[in-house]
Amino acid sequence: MTRLRSTSPVLPCALCGFCFTWYWQLGTETMRSTIPTNDTAQTVDSSGHDRLTCRVALIGFGTVGKSVAKILCERNDCSLRLTHICNRNIERKKQPWVPNDVIWTDDVQSVLKSDVQIVIELIGGITTAAEIVRGALEAGKSVVTANKQLIARHGPELLQLAAKNNCQLEFGASVAGGVPVLPALRTGLCGDRLHGIAGILNGTCNYILSRIEGARIPFSEALEEAQARGYAEADASEDLDGGDARAKLAILVLAGLHTWVAPESIRARTIRPIDAVDFDYATELGCTIRQISRANLNADSSGSAALLAEVGPCLVPSGSPFGRVQRNLNLVLTSGEYGGDMAFLGAGAGGDPTAVAVVSDVMFVAEGLAAGKKAAAGYVSAKAVSSDFETPWYLRFFVRDQPGIVAKLAEILAEHHLNIDSLLQKPGYNKAALPFVITLEPCRDSMLHPALEKMAGLDFSLRPCLCLPVLREA
Ligand SMILES: NC(=O)c1ccc[n+]([C@@H]2O[C@H](COP(=O)([O-])OP(=O)(O)OC[C@H]3O[C@@H](n4cnc5c(N)ncnc54)[C@H](OP(=O)(O)O)[C@@H]3O)[C@@H](O)[C@H]2O)c1
């Protein structure tokens, strides 16, 4: 067996004086890593640039952009060089800690026409960001972005454009912020055949639900608190109603299940009707409530794959990995045919954790450029997406108390061939607006739906029935 032996362990880089070049001796031949060496004559190209230094431009100098710039400026190696920082109205953005040779500009086109090799897009939004990313790829520049809405909507098209132009597109920070789940799907798990992905992908919802759980406060109070602490925007609809999480789920499905699905075709249920009383009843059942995004790829009888996907609040066992995720953390679980289950947990947002994911992507792309890699665009479009999961169910009613309520509900459930598992009514609640719960044995969503429609018309019902899947295996 050939052994790699370090001969002269570290040599200072002649270009920057700070970074180090490793040499290994393989037999009698000295091998060199792709990090710049003291062989200056061979590494300078006709434009006077060091060929082994990758030139990087940053577009969007906000929360994440500023953290990315800081990490790049503080790195003690010369394999990456930040050359441009671009933002609208750039003058107010200038920072003294950025080296003098970095160009500050508000002219995106000048960046795209420059000789940078990697463009980092961190402006957010869809239309302008898409134009910038397309423009960069068409100009032969690789792109790193943290933009979930952009990738969820245009990912396949942009991956194809990257491959066509011999460049790369990476979006590791677009799901779960600083948690390296997308890089894990791209490299560490690509040898498996994944069939399931589930996650807590929205820190705002997790914060609100864990606050209701911990303090038994109403939903509106938990939302106000999240807004006051900066965990929720003034209009938090994208988070609360599942739009944010389903864009992230669509990206996970693309990267992990190699299946393209438009985010809008994934059903999203809101967390708004969750009440403190639901945590009382969930606790009785050994559970808590979390917003779960989940997707399963099932082979149908014809052998082709059918995708089940959904985002929404679910009951999960309190002691389970999902049940233990508190506040604004993210957790992603993957299930593979060969490797079984894997878990990824960490900070799903925040300038610095997200910037780490962005810079890691930039380093990965820079290495790929040195090795002549281009984007892989392998995926299939989902034939259809359904949310017809088969699970046990939690049904919570608010009723005006009167005789015969349970008998009427049981009659409707029986008519629809649905089996009751348990009936819970805790004492002490106001009889004028009495909450109680029925749990059902496993059935498909499509079987339950007609029964819920019939229940909605009952005169004792004060609010629509809250219907949550119970994920016992979560
Ligand atoms: N923040 C997080 O924790 C997090 C986590 C994961 C992913 N992400 C993603 O990362 C991206 C950036 O998020 P962020 O939180 O850093 O946003 P941000 O703080 O709003 O920063 C965006 C920056 O881009 C600038 N900008 C916006 N539109 C522009 C345009 N048309 N031309 C030039 N500059 C423009 C903004 O300038 P102004 O100052 O004038 O507004 C701002 O400086 C988004 O795609 C986001 O979804 C963020």
In the CATH hierarchy, what is the architecture of the largest domain at level 2? 2-Layer Sandwich
Number of strands: 24
What does the main sheet amount to? Answer: 7 strands, mixed
Number of helical elements:
14
Task: Describe the structure in your own words.
It is a single chain. The protein folds into four domains: 5-43, no CATH class; 54-174, NAD(P)-binding Rossmann-like Domain (Rossmann fold); 181-349 and 380-386, Dihydrodipicolinate Reductase, domain 2; 390-469, Alpha-Beta Plaits (2-Layer Sandwich). The protein is built from 14 helices and 24 strands. The protein has helices at 40-43, 63-74, 108-113, 127-138, 148-164, 181-188, 203-215, 219-228, 237-240, 243-256, 276-284, 351-371, 405-415, 445-456, and strands spanning 5-6, 11-12, 20-21, 23-26, 29-32, 54-59, 80-86, 103-105, 118-121, 142-145, 169-170, 194-200, 259-260, 267-268, 287-299, 305-317, 329-336, 340-347, 380-381, 385-386, 390-399, 420-424, 434-444, 466-469. The strands form six sheets. Strands 12, 14, 15, 16, 17, 18 and 20 form a seven-stranded mixed β-sheet that branches. The radius of gyration is 26 Å and the shape is elongated. The model is unreliable at 1-42 (pLDDT under 50).
